[in-house]
Amino acid sequence: MSIKIGLLGFGTVASGIPFLLKENAEKIIAAAHNDLEIAKVLVKDEDEKNRLIAAGHDYHFVTNVDEILNDADIQIVVELMGRIEPARTFITKALEAGKNVVSANKDLIATHGKELISLAQAKGVAFYYEAAVAGGIPILRTLANSLTSDKVTRILGVLNGTSNFMMTKMVDEGWTYEAALRTAQELGYAESDPTNDVEGIDAAYKAVILSQFGFGMTVDFDQVSHKGITTITPDDVAVAQELGYVIKLVGDIREVASGISAEVAPTFLPQNHPLASVNGVMNAVFVESIGIGESMYYGPGAGQKPTATSVMADIIRIARRLSDGNVGKAFNEFARETRLADSADVFAKYYFAINVPDKSGQILRLAEIFNTEDISFEQVLQQKANGEEARVVIITHELSKTQLESVIAKLNAVEDFQVVNTLKVLGD
Amino acid sequence: MSIKIGLLGFGTVASGIPFLLKENAEKIIAAAHNDLEIAKVLVKDEDEKNRLIAAGHDYHFVTNVDEILNDADIQIVVELMGRIEPARTFITKALEAGKNVVSANKDLIATHGKELISLAQAKGVAFYYEAAVAGGIPILRTLANSLTSDKVTRILGVLNGTSNFMMTKMVDEGWTYEAALRTAQELGYAESDPTNDVEGIDAAYKAVILSQFGFGMTVDFDQVSHKGITTITPDDVAVAQELGYVIKLVGDIREVASGISAEVAPTFLPQNHPLASVNGVMNAVFVESIGIGESMYYGPGAGQKPTATSVMADIIRIARRLSDGNVGKAFNEFARETRLADSADVFAKYYFAINVPDKSGQILRLAEIFNTEDISFEQVLQQKANGEEARVVIITHELSKTQLESVIAKLNAVEDFQVVNTLKVLGD
To answer: What is the CATH number for B405?
Structure first.
């Protein structure tokens, strides 16, 4: 018997699925314990349907989703449309119709996952989305299956290929943000409106999902603070290098005494940190835990075949569970009460780049301000004096987010100081 | 109801299991859908038993394995004794008694896994061994569960922490092999007889197991060629660095047209290869596949808590499958006919270090010999002329193993040439 699949959407990722089904048929059928068949494919309209047929695609294309939802033979619906609507409505209807659903839609899952997961549970069907985080890296299933015995204390991730490509160019080649963005757009890595990638929004979606799998806590998207790479200058990159660091956009989720903290921000990574050598469009998730200690999962964060491979792994898992009769199990069974960390309880070292008047005594003035917040310096560099203005760069010892906000407010209150940038610094 | 576990052996790894059960009790019980209880622990003799009790260990220690094998309440037997016997006999008896077995014993699984896996299948019980390859890295389950949809074409692994620690010291600090070994022994990373680690035997065991999970083929241990790091000199390390490479002991399993090839050998890795920055005792498995493309799994290769975490993940999986009623499923279901690659079909670039007389015309003589085997040079360096002898270093274009053997034989037949080392070179 073959298991019938309905595809919603036939864009880049979706067309990777026939590739895998063809190139790897024997292994997939053996793993799924069944043949898998793409029974129907939803496309936007007749135009798209005719274009795909003319291009030689031999599927049963439909333009009305009900043809899939009302088809009792279709057991698995694969949503690869992206964005919130109509994906949310279609997935909801599919789950309500008792169909198992696979999706790669991180925006949707990060913002409406809770309701969809509950619905799937209530209906006793599967809702899997391995491809939603770090495309080709099998990180969600690994957290759910292999780190079950472990207690994760922190997840650090290079989770957005576009911004990582840009930061790699800015670090390795000294490019400006603008030049890096232009090239990313030319290469098709960045969209014409790159906001989601460069402002850390896309990475924050992924952090929401990782929080559930790593820590069993459901953090809402607006509880993940995000800061993008748009303010990073060649000066920041150069001083990072001088001090032994690489700047990358890093998602950082950790559990401290008071609860969970999740944020996305450009971060100083020590050059010998395993994440520091994750370059170009590659992604990686670095996990700190009490059992394994440190482990890292590296691979492509996007792309047709990598994403299709993760989608296909979900499909196979559903097929197996259909034959085992336990398809209703949650993708992630780890759930605890969600507690958000107090800002006073979330510590890190920080980099400050501050413009000060180019005259003596400025470092003393800065030190006095930091001292009122009980913040001490690990490293101080004075740079770029031009007679009028000088740049002071400080790497602090650890301070809390509360201290960070206070000291920035105090620095901003000083008329002749200008806080150019503050970035988190990893390392002991 | 709690699921009862019998431990065979209470050494370093085994004592990491109570740590996880205590520190992570809530998550483990939720994941296992059951409480887990260490019901009995087999130790060697009364002396060890008394010593452990005196040290405060509150378990039911037994000195006769039959007390575990004949205990109908024990559903999971965890073998952490190491070596072949009596582990092989005990596991065989446990499987015959219908018990599920978890083991971390790579030597045993690489050499007698086939019979144990068949026995487990025949008895409808589980036989899992995630910890046998790369300790804390969940690579086997990832290959079995997440890469099911993908076709793996090559697995490259830094699979032995001891030799990687030594190579890291030799590369980063310029240490000799002997100095690196001495320090590894002082730090407890290397045993007094380091043969298994430094000769690539331990890594070859892991390559056997990876072949099954990655390629569905059962390669015997003696079909994995292995070459150790004992012949690597500071000269080799220095010339590698000069040419942009790092030398590491790498397990290399790939499928070529004629079949599968598995070997362990010191290898020139391009400095920007993800495996090149895997340092110290860390391990990593780099997977090339048609779907994901390139992915890497990085973590500690050994150690109490990492290994115990992998063992615990196996135990949890068995507990879940016991409640699902499908515990008899194989750890790895991917199996194809095993075909070994022809040497003529396995290609790589190679590094040759050859001592020649210190007079003109030697590179021409070398080039003529390589030319008879149709091998061309990518790079040639002449080094270290002392008036009598000169060192010529060659990096070839790709050649087959057959060509490699022929050209080495021809070079060895020349009285005043001395082939000092030949190493595989990765990269385009």
So the answer is: 3.30.70.1150
Tell me if A217 is assigned to some domain. Answer: yes
Nearest chain B alpha carbon to A312: B149
In a domain, A334, yes or no: no
Task: List average pLDDT for each run of 10 residues in chain A, which is 428 residues long.
Answer: 93 91 92 94 96 94 97 97 95 98 96 97 97 95 94 97 96 95 94 95 97 96 96 94 96 97 97 95 97 97 94 96 92 94 97 94 95 96 87 96 97 96 92
Contacts of A133 in chain B (CB under 8 A): none
**Does residue A406 lie within any of the structural domains?**
yes
Cα–Cα dist A120/A77, whole Å: 13
Provide the 8-state DSSP code for B276. G
Residue B399 lies in a domain: yes
Percent of chain B with pLDDT over 90: 94
Residues 6 or more apart whose CB falls under 8 angstroms from that of B80 comprise: B7, B8, B9, B10, B11, B13, B14, B103, B104, B105, B311
Do B33 and B150 lie in one domain? The reply is: no
Does A273 share its domain with A402?
A: no
- 3-state DSSP call for residue A313? helix
At B208, list the tokens. 């056997």
Interface test with B, best of A26, A147, A309, A312 (most B CBs within 10 A): A309
Interface test with A, best of B158, B213, B292 (most A CBs within 10 A): B292
Asked which of A265, A300, A335 is the last residue of a domain, the reply is A300
Segment holding B300, helix H or strand E: strand B294-300
Tokens 């150069």 belong to A238
Report the number of distinct structural domains present in chain A: 3
C-beta pairs of B167-173 under 8 Å, 24+ apart in sequence: B167/B229, B167/B232, B167/B247, B167/B248, B167/B249, B167/B266, B168/B279, B168/B280, B170/B232, B170/B234, B170/B237, B170/B247, B171/B237, B171/B240, B171/B241, B171/B246, B171/B247, B172/B279
Same-domain check for residues A199 and A308: no
Which residue among A20, A30, A326 sits closest to B333, beta carbon to beta carbon? A30
Q: Which of A409, A293, A331, A277 is nearest to A145 (CA)?
A: A331
**Does A291 contact chain B (CB < 8 Å)?**
yes
Could you tell me the end-to-end alpha-carbon distance of chain A, in angstroms, rounded to an integer?
Answer: 57
How many helices (H) and strands (E) would you count in chain A?
15, 17
DSSP state of B346: -
- Catalytic pick among B4, B206, B349, B424: B206
Helix/strand/coil for A26:
helix
Residues B16 and B149 in one domain: no
Task: Give the span between the Cα atoms of A358 and A365, in whole angstroms.
Answer: 13
Domain with residue A398: its CATH number is: 3.30.70.260
Report the residue of chain A nearest B330, measured CA to CA.
A31
Q: What is the pLDDT of residue A270?
A: 96
B33-73: pLDDT as tens digits: 999 999 999 999 999 999 999 999 999 999 999 999 999 99
User: In CATH, what number is assigned to the domain containing residue A264?
Assistant: 3.30.360.10
Q: Are strands B347-357 and B389-396 parallel, antiparallel or unpaired?
A: antiparallel
What's the domain range around A172?
139-300
The residue from A233, A266, A300 where one domain ends is A300
pTM of the model: 0.96
Residues in A closer than 8 angstroms to B303, CB to CB, are 293
Residues A178 and A98 in one domain: no
Residues A256 and A320 in one domain: no
Do B24 and B156 fall into the same domain? no
Residues from chain B contacting residue A313 (CB–CB below 8 Å): 145-150
> Tens digits of per-residue pLDDT, B205-222?
999 999 999 999 999 999
Regarding whether B295 and B147 lie in a shared domain, the answer is: yes
Cβ separation of A148 and B294 shorter than 8 Å?
A: no
In tens, the pLDDT along B1-16 reads: 799 999 999 998 998 9
